[in-house]
Structure formats: structure tokens, C-alpha cells
Amino acid sequence: MTLMPSRRMFAGLAGVALLLTILPAPVSATTPGQNGLIAFRRFGAADQSNSTLFGINPDGTHETRITLPADNVVDAMGNWSPDGTQIVFTRTSSCGDDCGTDELYVVNADGSNVHRIATTTPTIESPAWSPDGRWIAFSMSTDAGDGGVLVAIWELHPDGSGLRQVTQTVAGQSEDHAVQFSPDGSRIVIERQFASCGFCPSIFTANATDGGNLTRVSPRGLKGFDHPDWSPDGRWVIFRTEARAGASSGVFVAHPDGSHLQLILDGTRTGRRFRSSTFSPDGAEMVISIIPGPDANADLWIGRFDSSEHLASLTQLTRTDAFESSVRWGSSPQLGG
């Protein structure tokens, strides 16, 4: 299930007067370091109306619940803090059609100190922590006037101060989603959607300060999307593609300037469908959510890269009847060590 606050909140945003301070912004890849705990979302209901964040060691041991959401609340993984002690995530509460909130939360890795960070509107998606720990970036929908909605990348400090806009989009024409920082914090990778093709998605990199120097990563027509991630050494961006008519989804890596595009997972022959993925902190592996076939739920798998960034192996990590996705690999110490 993909929750799109920009679509769901049109009715709630129309006519709302907002006082926004829009300033130039300095503006996460998987943080380089030891391979620690993997955090992910598990849906607890067949209709995906409830989900919880869990942690698990890379060898599949010591699975631990991190959040305890109420019924009809969906917690979705955002990203680890650079020091591996906290997780930023979104909490979605639904009260019916065109009714609900998507809010920004932070929790300690052990599940303690769950707290909300207030934002201008409760329309938050896909938060990411900056490499220096000073900023949390996210996609947010705001009122553009005349019933329009502006969907762009914003950021604020972890204490809720300093809210400012990073990328510049045009209401009704383009939207920005799914932000991640480069390891040095100078660039971001985003999913930009264009109304001219039915809000088709593409992956771009941009300056982290103001969204400038926009560079296409996914070729036109490929429809790259869904929480791209930046490798810890800054050399690669990973993303997946939408399933097209007569074809299955795939997982690609490419350099941040769009060069050296490589297909690393192809569901055409196997019937597999792919969800979110992320690099390991040491850059040698990845973890990905995979739906193995029709009417199946997603499990987590770990892939190991060879020297040319192709996958040398793929090993199943979780085996449950639940749907597991929204995964991020952090440097928080593994459990039971």
C-alpha cells in the first residue's frame, strides 16, 4: 500500500490559510558504518489498516517490536539517525475517506520516547535524517491557493524548529516525494512526479541547499520511484520501477548523474514484485522487500553485491504471512550480542 498524502488530503487542504516561511535551505543515504539493526514495517491487518515498526538482526535473529500503534494506525519506516540511536517515521491515522493525518514521529531504537514533531500540515511522507543529524527532510503537501496543493521537499530540526522549503514544484504540475540525503549532505535524491504523464514518477538528484541543479537518474519512460537510497560511498543510487503492461517491476542502480544504469533484479521471468530497498551501512549488501508471486505477501531478503555492483546472492531474511516493507538498514548495535 502506498499512502499518498497529496491525494488523500486535497479536501482537507483546500481553503486552508497557511503562514509559511519559505527560506533557502541547506540541506540520507544509508549512513556509513557497521551493519547493525534492520528496521521495517509489518502490516498487522489483511486490509493494511494497521502496521508496526520492527527491528531484526541481519541474520534473522532477535526480531523486536519497536512501535505500538493503535488500531487503524499505520507506522511507516522513515530513516535511522546518523548515530543509530533513533528512527524518524510517519504515523498515519485514518478516520474515513479524505479524512486522516500523516504526521512526523521519532522513536528510540529500543522503542522508548515516541514523540511527535509538529509540522505546518499533517501531510508528511518519507522522512530522512541528514548525515550531520541537524535536519529531518520529508515530503509535505501544503495549500497552494485556489484549491491547489503544493507537494515539495521540506526540512526542519529534530526539535521542530527551522521549518523551510527545499525543492520548488508547481502545484498541479509536479510533486516531489521520497527524499534521501547523499552521504556528504550536499545532494538529495527524490522521486519527482509529473502531471503531464499522469503523475508518472522519475528519480532525480538535486542540490541539498535549494533543490537546484536537478539531474535525472532514471531514463525517461522507466518510471523509477519508491524511496530511492544512496549508497554509503555516494557512488550509487538504488530504486525500483513500476510494473508496466506486459512487464514486471525491476530494481536498478545507477550513478547519481544517471550514468552506468544497471538492472540488478528483474521480475519478468520469476513473477516477483519488488518494494522498498536500502543499502547496508558497509555498502556490501542490500535489504529489499519482495513479493514472490500472485496473492503472496512481501518478505525481506538480503542481497550481496559483487565488485561491479551486481547482485552475487539473494537470501531470505523473514518468513511470515504478513506483508513486510518500508525497510531501512542502520548502524544501531545488533541485538543479543
Distinctive features:
2 helices, 4-stranded antiparallel β-sheet, 2% helix, 337 residues, single chain, Neuraminidase, globular, disordered N terminus, mainly beta
Give a structural overview.
By secondary structure, the chain is mainly β. The chain has a domain at 5-233: Neuraminidase, CATH 2.120.10. 2% of the residues lie in helices and 46% in strands. The protein is built from 2 helices and 24 strands. The protein has helices at residues 5-8, 10-13; strands spanning 38-43, 51-56, 64-65, 73-80, 86-96, 99-108, 115-117, 124-129, 136-145, 148-156, 164-165, 174-181, 187-194, 200-207, 215-216, 224-230, 237-241, 250-254, 262-266, 273-279, 285-291, 299-305, 311-316, 324-329. It has a 4-stranded antiparallel beta sheet, with no helix packed on it. The protein has a 4-stranded antiparallel beta sheet with strand order 4-5-6-7, with no helix packed on it. A 4-stranded antiparallel beta sheet has the order 8-9-10-11, with no helix packed on it. Strand 14 (200-207) and strand 15 (215-216) form a beta hairpin. The protein is globular, with a radius of gyration of 18 Å.
Strand order of the largest sheet: 3-2-1-24
Q: Which architecture name of the domain at 5-233 does CATH use? A: 6 Propeller
Number of helices: 2
Structural class, please? mainly beta
Strand/helix succession = HHEEEEEEEEEEEEEEEEEEEEEEEE
What fraction strand?
over 45%
Low-pLDDT runs of 5+ residues are 1-28
How many runs of DSSP E, i.e. beta strands? Answer: 24
Distance between the termini: 34 Å
Basic shape:
globular
By CATH's scheme, which homologous superfamily of the domain at 5-233 applies?
Answer: TolB, C-terminal domain
* Helix proportion range: under 10%
Biggest sheet layout: 4 strands, antiparallel
* CATH-derived topology of the domain at 5-233: Neuraminidase
